[in-house]
Write a structure and sequence with these properties.
By secondary structure, the protein is of the alpha+beta class. It is built from four helices and five strands. The longest helix is centred in the N-terminal third of the chain and has 77 residues. The radius of gyration is 50 Å and the shape is rod-shaped.
Length: about 200
């Protein structure tokens, strides 16, 4: 049997067997419709998946922004924590300058230690009536000194740099009648404490 001759017989066979051709065409038609439905279904599924992916990407972007925002807030809180720690240390150091009471004997000792050793005299130290101002007690102090100009300036600088807060608000200077180059000065100011 020759294969070429058999192929030549197929058109004749199809002409005589119209039912077989119709059935074959119906199968092809159903196959094409099925393929079209299948491809439409895949296309719809891909579109749905693409929409889902876009939504997920948007959610991821939002979460990234939230994460960055939370990280920034966390860093700000850590900075605040460090600032609070630093302020607490500063407050601890400053408590020495603002004690609970005036500690007058210790204050007089510190003032005396601020005086130059030679050619300088602290004539008197007077304390006024304590005043309360914004929750802090202030004690007025008046100091009279006698000595050379440079030594008097040095004393004032030493007083101003005591461990206690000492605010000088008035200084009067006069030439000494007893010894000419020396001066007599009156210094007035305030020391502070948390309570009287």
């Amino acid at each position: 049997m020759n294969l070429v001759e058999e192929f030549k017989k197929i058109p004749d066979y199809l002409r005589t067997n119209k039912i077989a051709v119709i059935i074959l065409m119906a199968f092809v038609f159903f196959y094409l419709i099925n393929q079209d439905l299948f491809l439409n279904n895949i296309d719809n599924t891909l579109k749905a998946n693409e929409t889902t992916i876009i939504k997920l990407n948007n959610k991821i972007r939002i979460l990234k922004h939230i994460t960055i925002s939370l990280t920034n807030e966390k860093n700000e809180l850590l900075n605040l924590k460090n600032e609070i720690r630093s302020l607490k240390l500063r407050l601890k150091k400053q408590r020495i300058k603002l004690p609970k009471t005036f500690m007058i004997s210790a204050l007089i000792k510190h003032i005396s230690e601020s005086a130059p050793i030679s050619n300088f005299i602290i004539e008197k130290i007077n304390f006024g009536k304590q005043v309360k101002n914004q929750g802090v007690m202030a004690l007025p102090i008046s100091i009279s000194i006698f000595g050379g100009f440079n030594k008097s300036i040095k004393f004032i600088k030493n007083i101003n740099s005591l461990k206690r807060i000492f605010v000088i608000n008035y200084i009067s200077v006069k030439a000494s009648k007893k010894s000419f180059p020396d001066i007599k000065a009156n210094i007035r100011g305030f020391v502070f404490s948390m309570q009287g």
